[in-house]
Amino acid sequence: MPTESQLSVPYAAARTLANISNAQRIGRTIPADAAASTTTAETLIGRVPHGCTVTSIKLTGGAALTASDTVYATITVYARDTNGANQVTVATIVTKITAGTGNWTALKPVTWTTVANGALLADWVLSYAVAKASTGTQLPETQLDVVVSSNP
Predict the structure, then answer these.
(1) 41, 131 in Cβ contact below 8 A?
(2) Average pLDDT over residues 114-143
(3) Neighbours of 128 (CB within 10 A)
(4) Which of the 8 DSSP states describes residue 6?
(5) What is the spatial distance between Cα 117 and Cα 139, in angstroms, rounded to a whole number?
(6) In degrees to the nearest 10, what's the CA dihedral of 30, 44, 102, 90?
(7) What is the largest CA-CA distance in the chain?
């Protein structure tokens, strides 16, 4: 089984679920933006295999990112019930210096622990969307991992 540090590197598989003790990661590789203004409509990350609680979100960029408080990206992670309805926001991550991720170092995970609505039921789905402020910031290829712990 791969170690946690090996899982932190962006990998070719679009979706992955890896066991790490009681924690699991449900992830997806976000393609690099074509331009700073590129946005992404809601896109599937993966299905929740069992009842769990989101504990954090990890972002690992394939290249460095320079944070800004005026031109930035907002990555929103959503959960939907088994019918694909009832969208709830799990986390809103901004690439700002103030109250955001700050600068990214290539291949070094950034962990976001501000999570809301983190209790998920089996067969719910996770998704994400990317919006941009002002002219935006160009996101590198990024591994987005939703870290969950099993509910007892």
Answers:
(1) no
(2) 94
(3) 22
(4) H
(5) 26
(6) -170
(7) 45
Provide φ and ψ at 103, rounded to 5°.
-65, 150
Q: What is the DSSP string of 87-134?
A: -EEEEEEE--STTS---B-TT--EEE---SS-EE-TT-EEEEEEEEST
Retrieve residue 12's tokens: 């070719």
pLDDT at 76 over 80: yes
pLDDT in tens, 1-36: 444 444 444 443 333 444 445 778 999 999 999 999
Q: In what order do the strands lie in the sheet with 73-80?
A: 40-47, 125-132, 73-80, 88-94
Break the chain into its structural domains and give their ranges.
36-150
Q: Which two tokens stand for residue 145?
A: 């991992």
Q: How far is residue 127's CA from residue 14's CA, in Å, rounded to a whole number?
A: 13
What is the DSSP code (8-state) at residue 69?
S
Give the length of the chain: 152
d(CA 90, CA 126): 9
Q: What is the CATH number of domain 36-150?
A: 2.60.120
Q: pTM for the full model?
A: 0.83
Instruction: Give the span between the Cα atoms of 88 and 78, in whole angstroms.
Output: 6
